[in-house]
Automatic annotation (TrEMBL):
GO terms for molecular function: glycosyltransferase activity. Gene3D superfamilies: Spore Coat Polysaccharide Biosynthesis Protein SpsA, Chain A (3.90.550.10). Keywords: Glycosyltransferase, Transferase. It comes from the Archaea. Belongs to the glycosyltransferase 2 family. This is Glycosyl transferase GT2 family. InterPro entries: Glyco_trans_2-like (IPR001173), Nucleotide-diphossugar_trans (IPR029044). It comes from Methanobacterium formicicum.
């Protein structure tokens, strides 16, 4: 897709990968915002995770109104897609046979882009986001002005721009969060946020050089959803690359701000299977991160400083594994990651990474309006 009136110093091809699952209204709003951005060359790969609503029909109708030609593929056709040499200027729609989750679902779209679209960068974008018209140019500007770039994230604000959604990822002794998530904003001014290095990029909106993804690999499907982007950020840094915030790139995200779990949540979780599944993903995925990347000294400090958090994580994992019948499967996944840990400890960047980026507690943002 090209905007012929826009002139970039350097033209970079970008494949934008978006996941849809039973949420076509948000997806169409996201697509509309992308069609208004001031970037020269990009192509959208929309992956539908086996939606059971009217998503496919609505997406087709939207494209017809633009008008925008769609190249549709079933999941089973991706190894040898029809008309793979005639994909330019089209919206690529991939229809998955099952819900692969956020991690594997995105991987399907990224693999397709790397194999058939020949981009320089892949942008992962949540379908519940709205993009500012210059956001992609700003991401590319930061990418071109820094060395060893592994990922670039825009400033993520909530939908009505009243609060910050994410200024990048940070890891601390027992947890990983988006920087300043939920911090209120009194006003938005151009240039209020500065470019800077961050630990890693939130995959709700993150730009990755294709050469980096080919080297590090994509998301680990074991995560399914939650913390898969934190794991990728670790692998990017272990490969010797850095991540950056593009302070003038703005994306608006509809995600609600999550708070800490209360005693009512615990009681609800005991009775609510959906909450139990959420517990299982959160606790299992976090323990995968700790098992893979955290030194024993930091784990010991976490146990001493945050015993309630550590015990609650273990409780949730054990309880949810029993209820869901996943004790053996969970044990195999964690055991597999002990082998990953041995390789990580031999990495020449590992010690440098955890010493610089693992903090005792989340960042206190203060008055972010001062930039």
């Amino acid at each position: 897709m090209k905007n012929k009136d826009h002139d970039l110093e350097t033209t970079h091809r970008v494949s934008i990968v978006i996941i849809n699952w039973n949420n076509w209204m948000d997806t169409l709003e996201c697509l509309k915002s992308l069609l208004n951005i001031n970037n020269s060359v990009f192509q959208i790969v929309l992956v539908d995770n086996n939606s059971t609503d009217d998503s496919i029909t609505q997406i087709r109708d939207f494209a017809r109104q633009i008008p925008l030609e769609i190249a549709e593929f079933r999941e089973g056709e991706l190894e040898n897609p029809r008309s793979k040499n005639d994909l330019q200027e089209k919206l690529v729609l991939i229809k998955n046979n099952i819900n692969h989750g956020f991690a594997a679902g995105n991987n399907i779209g990224v693999h397709f882009a790397l194999q058939y679209l020949n981009p320089d960068y892949v942008l992962l974008l949540n379908n519940d986001t709205i993009t500012h018209e210059n956001f992609l140019d700003e991401l590319l500007r930061v990418a071109c002005r820094n060395d060893r770039v592994g990922s670039i994230q825009p400033v993520l604000l909530n939908y009505d721009a009243s609060a910050i959604d994410s200024l990048g990822q940070e890891c601390y002794w027992w947890g990983a969060e988006d920087i300043c998530m939920g911090q209120p904003l009194n006003h938005i001014e151009k240039g209020i946020f500065s470019d800077g290095e961050i630990f890693g990029s939130c995959a709700a909106a993150a730009l990755y050089p294709c050469e980096v993804l080919r080297e590090t690999g994509l998301f680990d499907g074991d995560f399914f959803v939650e913390l898969e982007d934190v794991d990728l950020s670790w692998r990017i840094r272990l490969s010797g690359y850095n991540s950056f915030l593009a302070g003038k790139a703005l994306v608006y995200h509809k995600r609600g701000v999550s708070g800490t779990l209360s005693s009512r949540d615990i009681i609800k979780g005991v009775k609510d299977e959906s909450m139990v599944r959420k517990w299982h993903r959160q606790s299992r995925n976090w323990l995968i991160i700790v098992t893979r990347y955290y030194p024993k000294s930091i784990i010991a400090k976490a146990i001493f400083r945050y015993p309630h958090k550590v015990l609650f994580t273990l409780f949730r994992l054990i309880y949810s594994s029993i209820i869901l019948g996943k004790i053996r499967k969970t044990g195999k996944i964690l055991h597999k990651n002990l082998k990953v840990r041995k390789k990580v400890k031999k990495n020449r960047f590992w010690s440098q990474i955890w010493q610089k980026w693992l903090k005792s507690s989340p960042t206190t943002c203060g008055n972010v309006n001062d930039g």
